[in-house]
DNA sequence: TAGTTCTGGAACTATTTGGTTCTATAAAAG
DNA sequence: CTTTTATAGAACCAAATAGTTCCAGAACTA
């Protein structure tokens, strides 16, 4: 039972553009802190802290290879957000002619 | 051009359980601040501020009917998050036998 | 062994956040 | 006109956040 990550932590981690950019970078494969820091006008330490936040949120795991600690993206928290969105997605996906009313008046929602 | 909402603001707004609960409540229809505050052990003012944050993030709009200001959920920022997730969704939706390698080694991603 | 590289810990700072209380204002109800 | 109701503004506070700099340790390299 390694994970018990809250949506709170995941959303908070994603609320920073630097961290989202780091995640996007990790789509191209594992990277060290120094490598991740390269595109940014921030200290390596600052990036190290960002990676720490991502790790706390379960969005990244690390494995040390020599003195390089390689970060790797983890998808589960993103899937959790996706599932949270399910509760709302039907409201914009369906072509409900009365959707306006549904949201305003709170009529019985479509099944 | 009313909206220019950032993912930053949206994710940050969603990083609070009270605010997510307010959003869920609004699926049942518009509500006043006082109504929204009812389930919580917080002051009405605190809920009013939460609604303000949601409004800043474009997740809620308000219309005042009499002295009650009715809050209503807005879906666009959620759709924006959904589209942001698109960049990652393919990685957990597809059954890529080499997905492990893709994330670790950063091999050429599937089309 | 000595030097270099990569990273995290510690301490500090400025800003933001989530909450409170008290006050002011606008509108409805008496 | 007075009172009640619903909300936001202002001031305040404690805790969290994002950044910095400096230092220490672990592991390669010469």
Automatic annotation (TrEMBL), chains A, B:
Residues 1-93 form the HTH arsR-type domain. It comes from the Bacteria. One of its GO terms (molecular function) is DNA-binding transcription factor activity. This is Transcriptional regulator. The lineage of its organism: Bacteria, Pseudomonadati, Pseudomonadota, Alphaproteobacteria, Hyphomicrobiales.
């Amino acid at each position: 039972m390694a994970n018990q990550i809250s949506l709170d932590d995941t959303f908070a981690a994603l609320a920073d553009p630097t961290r989202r950019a780091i995640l996007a970078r990790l789509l191209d494969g594992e990277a060290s802190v120094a490598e991740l820091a390269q595109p940014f006008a921030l200290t390596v330490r600052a990036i190290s802290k960002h990676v720490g936040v991502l790790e706390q949120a379960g969005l990244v795991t690390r494995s040390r290879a020599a003195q390089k600690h390689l970060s790797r993206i983890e998808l589960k928290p993103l899937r959790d957000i996706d599932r949270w969105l399910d509760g709302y997605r039907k409201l914009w996906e369906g072509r409900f002619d009365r959707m306006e009313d549904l949201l305003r008046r709170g009529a019985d929602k479509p099944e």
